[in-house]
Design goal:
352 residues; alpha/beta; Purple Acid Phosphatase, chain A, domain 2; seven-stranded mixed β-sheet; 14 strands; disordered N terminus
């Protein structure tokens, strides 16, 4: 029940709430980097609004899966209040994102990846994260039901920082979904490559969710070759290398989703999309979706509530993409702003 297709409202036009273009479709909802919501007390209710909207619309949009692109918090482990970059301790930030996604526990499977801000103290000084304390493997029974395997994190503990799931949509082949840590270590890349190569998964639709992978359309959708925020460790894999070592060689990986990048403080500077052929000659669709600098830049409201809705049509190949804000949709005075209809925000692609 995904309202993706028929809503193109502009000022002065009738607002139409999200719905599916075909009642037999199903959908994935993508939540972009939440750090701008969690770091300010005033913004934290907005993230709760977003997941509340997902909960309320899970039947209407036939939502099968929720993905989040990482940077769940702004600072993973600070014990003194920041002077400018937010007004919440790390404990409050983690409690906020935990509570927001907690609305979906037992109702929808959701897969989160870790971003650079989810490690170290302020950002990626090391590989320590509080993620595992707030999102253990047995937290959401619907996640546990589809979880196949976890890889050891940097401390040697198997956690959801690097996890593989098999999700069975209402129709079509099962999805093999990888959630990979920020700039994954070489061992993680090899683990995912070996898992994707197993004979029992060759007819699955492979999906990679990782925080940092590609740039926006204003930077020609380039895969990342140099990190703007160099991590405090040497073992890491950036976007172009991840493509060459994992995504391209795997004939079954068909989609990659990421966040992280803000090339320009505009809609276009937060999003990107490209399609390449893998080694088997199959199309791989790669999507950047971020929104953290919307709504007033890094001191603003955290991202204007933007979500991505991907509608998978019954033909088994067409995916329709829409960009929607439940924050703007709340009030009749702002409903005309609730849809973004630029070509980089509203489009479709074919899986096969």
């Amino acid at each position: 029940m995904l309202a993706l297709l028929a809503a193109k409202p502009a000022a002065g036009q009738h607002y139409e709430a999200p719905r599916l273009s075909d009642p037999k479709s199903w959908s994935i909802v993508i939540v972009p980097d939440p750090q701008g919501y969690t770091k300010f007390k005033r913004n934290q209710p907005l993230l709760d609004l977003m997941t509340n909207w997902i909960e309320d619309n899970r039947a209407r949009l036939n939502i099968g899966l929720v993905l989040c692109t990482g940077d769940l918090v702004e600072q993973n482990y600070i014990t003194e209040l920041p002077k400018e970059n937010g007004d919440q301790l790390s404990s409050s930030q983690w409690q906020c994102v935990s509570g927001a996604f907690g609305r979906l526990d037992g109702k929808l499977p959701y897969i989160l990846c870790t971003g650079n801000h989810d490690y170290g103290t302020n950002a990626t000084e090391n590989r320590y994260s509080q993620f595992n304390s707030y999102f253990p493997p047995d937290r959401n029974p619907l996640n546990r039901r589809i979880l196949v395997e976890m890889a050891p994190n940097a401390s040697g503990v198997r956690t959801l920082e690097n996890a593989c799931y098999v999700f069975k949509p209402p129709f079509g082949p099962p999805m093999l979904v990888f959630s990979l840590e920020y700039a994954p270590r070489k061992a993680v890349v090899e683990w995912a490559k070996a898992l994707a190569a197993r004979p029992e998964y060759q007819k699955h639709t492979g999906v990679v969710l990782t925080h940092s992978y590609m740039r926006s359309g204003v930077r020609d959708n380039q895969r990342i070759v140099k990190e703007d925020y160099p991590p405090g460790f040497s073992d890491y894999t950036l976007g172009e290398t991840l493509w060459q070592q994992l995504v391209k060689p795997a004939g079954n990986i068909r989609m990659v989703f990421c966040g992280h990048i803000i090339d320009v403080a505009s809609h276009a500077g937060h999003v990107g999309f490209r399609t390449d052929l893998n080694a088997a000659g199959q199309k791989v669709h790669q999507m950047l979706f971020n929104a953290q600098n919307e709504g007033g830049n890094w001191k603003g409201n955290g991202g204007d509530g933007w979500l991505r809705i991907l509608e998978f049509l019954p033909d088994g190949k067409t995916v329709k993409v829409k960009t929607f804000s439940p924050l703007f949709a709340m009030s009749p005075s702002t409903q005309h702003l609730a849809w973004r209809t630029e070509p980089f925000d509203q489009f479709e692609f074919s899986l096969y």
